[in-house]
Amino acid sequence: MEIIVCKTKEEASRKAAALVAALVKKNPKAVLGLATGSTPIPLYKELIALNKAKKISFKQVRSWNLDEYWGLPPTHDQSYRYFMDTNLFDHVDIAKKSTHVLNGLAKDAAKECAAYEKAIKAAGGIDLQVLGIGSDGHIAFNEPGSSLASRTRLVSLTPQTVKDNSRFFKKAADVPRYALSMGVGSIMEAKRVVLLAFGANKAAAVAGAVEGGVSQFCTASALQMHPDAWFFCDAAAAAKLKLRKYYTVRGEEALARELA
Fold first, then answer.
1. Which pLDDT tens digit goes with each residue over 17-41?
2. Is 67 a catalytic residue?
3. What residues does 197 pair with on adjacent strands?
4. Active site residue 136
5. Is-contact 78 93, C-beta < 8 A?
6. Distance between CA atoms of 100 and 253, rounded to whole angstroms?
7. Where exactly are the structural domains of the chain?
8. Residue 143 among the catalytic residues
């Protein structure tokens, strides 16, 4: 696990984008795992800029998203398909048919999730998975208590997650209570993981994920067992890391070697 500590989320996003861009340059047919929410937006802006400057191309890239609200159509302005289209796909040269988001209107959730996993496996697996982290340490919609071996499935959202996501809806009652989500076990199969964490409200979660025990009560802590996990944090999100200074030096050295 490498921890990249930056002063701002913009700096952290630029460095994370450089890692993603390096993969796409090396492997134009890379399979990307993508995330939604406010956290990855600066990363996506960086990737859009690189694409428009013709420094990278997404023409042959394929993508699979982590999750989708169950019950929302793809045209809903809070669906994750809508989010991805408006924040990334509509602005780069990726083929829409090569982008995949779970179907929030699937009548048979188990069948939809099984087909999603099968498609990812058929594509060769995720080369690089982008993640955010919840204030309680969850990744995707793998709430505290989720099995660390969990697969893509229908999940019930905790009151905290509903509260955190209510800022995106007109009223709290509009927030879906269920979602389709890749499991922790599914995420752990990605060849590389890039997790972004910004703001003081993520500091406890980051500390738990990096320096706490591996536990289903902080599902991001499973990444301690991943062979190639990278955390990109701003100063506020890294504030509670006991070995912050060490991580800062080691992380910058690791990133420099990776991008050389």
1. 999 999 999 999 999 999 998 999 9
2. yes
3. 233
4. yes
5. no
6. 34
7. 2-259
8. yes
